[in-house]
Each structure stands twice: as structure tokens, then as C-alpha cells.
């Protein structure tokens, strides 16, 4: 038998077994990595993976994980699956060492259909800087109470102590609640205004900080700067737990709404046990006969072309 014939036969057998034997390799396609960050449910980088409420949200660009919503793109610094929170970074956001003006920052605003799934945490303070007296923040000023307040022990009074303010020279002009003008910095919780849009709020810049532990004694210099976003899966998540318990991966259908359990090359609307039992029965009865028939045909072809003697053919069969 020639080498080319042998390779042809081996290739045929490989393709035959690959097509007939069920594969679970599809289970590993959803869980992925970007740089040193693990991407797991409810998030995903691949279409059809994860929870439908978090689709088209994360992108991996040169090993940098980016979070994209209506207000812009942010670098993902961390995903805390235990506490269901993401930490985001806006390059144009002010910190204790640098104040960025000119309304360059993204702020933070999610699409309305995503709001049930994610919003900044309650202990995340947004400090709006250089807002106009005509800003919606101060509508009715000075007759109405300003929305500026202390959030989880963090306030503009402490933020004014950052070295970045000294670099602005005479830019800071601190007003009072009923004084001649609005304060240069106004600290607000996200739920008070529902969106940080610098253009709509008529502000020159903003900073964001969050607290994970008791605040340090060194004030704003010891705050954690970034946007801490709490996420949650609103629906009963028993479907996904049942799917993963049977070796599947949670995903969604082409409609972007219906959840699916991905079990290798097959999908299920419940869990992988149902498709495994079905595929095993089908394979054991139908595919076994198909495999045997294909092998008999292959042996007959080999015999006809390379063993013309009926005696040799009888020995092979």
C-alpha cells in the first residue's frame, strides 16, 4: 500500500470519528482572559456567551480590557466576582494629584436598558468641578438646597486639601449654599442625579472615588480613585447554576434575550443532562451502525484495490 493511500485512509478515519463522537470543547470557549483579568459569567468577550444583559460590553484590545457604554470607554482595572463589582478608570478623570478641566472626561452614564444590571456603588462619590451657576445641579439656586453632600465620609472639603488644587492657582472659588455663587466642587452620589454627563451638567471636570474599607486618616490623598460599578443579574439565576452544574456554559440565543445552556456542540434550554442523554442514545444506536458500515466499506475498498486475491480478501474479512 502506498504512503498516499495510507494517509488518505487515516484522514478519512479521523474525520469520521470527529464527526460522530460528541465533543465538549465548546464549554471552554466562553471563559477567557484579557491580560491578567479573567472574563467569566455574566461577562464575556464572545457573542452568545455570558448573560444577555451584559452583551457587547467588554472588549480586549492589546491585552487591555475595555468597558464600553453610552458615555464612553473605560479601562477595567478589576472584576470582583465575589462582590459583583467592576473598577473602571477614565483617563480624563481628576485625581488628588491632577485636576483635568475642559469637560474632557467621559463621566458615567449607562443605557437605560442596562440600568437594572449595573450602576455605581452607593459608596462611590462623584465630585463635579467648575460647574456653571446655570447647571441643573443648582436649579433654583439659592432658594433650593444644593445636591452637594458628604458621601460615605468623602466630600469636597477634604478634596480641596489635595495638592492638585495648588497647581490651579486662583482657580478655586468656594461659594456657600446661599452665597454669591456655586462651589467650585460639588460632591454627589450617583443615585441623586442618575448620570454624570459633564456637558448636560455644565461642569468643567469631575473626580470619582470609592471606599472599600474604613477611610484613612490622610484624607483625600488616601482615597481610591476610579469608578466602582456594582453589577447584578436580575432574573432568578437558577438556570445558570443548573447549566454549570451539569458541565455547561451559560449563554444566550441569537435574539439577545433568551438564555441558553451551551453543552459542547449542542445547546439546551434547560441543562446539559437533557442533551447528553439524548445525544448518547442517538450515538449508541444510529452512529454506531454508521461507523461500522463506513469501516466495512473502507475495508472493501482497500481489499479491492490492493488485495486482488479472493483468498487474501477472505482472510481480511
UniProtKB/TrEMBL annotation:
Q: Which domain of life is it from?
A: Eukaryota
Q: Where is the signal peptide?
A: 1-26
Wall-associated receptor kinase galacturonan-binding domain boundaries: 30-90
Pfam families in the record: GUB_WAK_bind
Q: State one molecular function term (GO).
A: polysaccharide binding
Subcellular localization is given as: Membrane
Query: Which InterPro entries does the UniProt entry name for this protein?
Result: WAK_GUB (IPR025287)
Q: Which GO terms describe its cellular component?
A: membrane
Record membrane topology: Single-pass membrane protein
What are the entry keywords?
Signal
The name of this protein is Wall-associated receptor kinase galacturonan-binding domain-containing protein
Tell me which species this is from. Answer: Prunus persica
Amino acid at each position: 500500500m502506498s504512503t498516499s493511500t495510507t494517509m488518505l485512509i487515516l484522514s478519512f478515519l479521523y474525520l469520521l470519528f470527529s464527526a460522530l463522537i460528541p465533543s465538549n470543547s465548546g464549554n471552554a470557549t466562553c471563559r477567557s482572559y484579557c491580560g491578567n483579568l479573567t472574563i467569566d459569567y455574566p461577562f464575556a468577550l464572545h457573542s452568545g456567551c455570558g448573560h444577555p444583559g451584559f452583551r457587547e460590553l467588554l472588549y480586549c484590545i492589546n491585552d487591555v480590557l475595555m468597558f464600553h457604554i453610552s458615555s464612553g470607554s473605560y479601562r477595567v482595572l478589576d472584576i470582583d466576582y465575589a462582590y459583583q463589582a467592576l473598577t473602571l478608570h477614565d483617563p480624563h478623570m481628576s485625581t488628588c494629584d491632577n485636576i483635568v478641566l475642559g469637560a474632557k472626561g467621559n463621566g458615567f452614564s449607562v443605557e437605560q436598558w442596562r440600568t437594572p444590571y449595573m450602576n455605581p456603588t452607593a459608596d462611590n462619590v462623584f465630585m463635579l468641578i467648575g460647574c456653571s451657576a446655570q447647571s441643573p445641579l443648582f436649579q433654583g439656586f439659592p432658594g433650593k438646597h444644593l445636591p452637594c453632600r458628604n458621601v460615605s465620609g468623602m466630600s469636597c472639603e477634604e478634596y480641596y486639601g489635595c495638592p492638585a488644587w495648588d497647581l490651579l492657582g486662583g482657580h478655586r472659588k468656594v461659594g456657600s449654599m446661599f452665597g454669591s455663587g456655586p462651589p467650585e466642587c460639588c460632591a454627589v452620589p450617583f443615585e441623586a442625579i442618575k448620570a454624570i454627563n459633564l456637558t448636560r451638567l455644565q461642569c468643567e471636570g469631575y473626580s470619582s472615588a470609592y471606599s472599600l474599607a474604613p477611610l484613612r486618616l490622610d484624607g483625600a490623598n488616601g482615597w481610591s480613585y476610579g469608578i466602582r460599578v456594582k453589577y447584578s443579574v436580575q432574573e432568578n439565576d437558577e438556570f445558570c447554576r443548573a447549566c454549570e452544574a451539569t458541565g455547561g456554559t451559560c449563554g444566550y440565543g441569537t435574539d439577545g434575550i433568551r438564555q441558553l445552556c451551551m453543552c459542547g456542540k449542542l445547546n439546551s434550554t434547560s441543562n446539559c443532562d437533557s442533551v447528553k442523554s439524548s445525544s448518547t442514545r442517538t450515538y449508541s444506536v444510529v452512529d454506531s451502525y454508521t461507523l461500522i458500515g463506513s469501516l466495512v466499506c473502507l475495508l472493501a475498498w482497500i481489499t479491492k484495490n490492493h488485495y486482488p486475491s479472493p483468498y487474501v480478501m477472505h482472510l481480511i474479512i
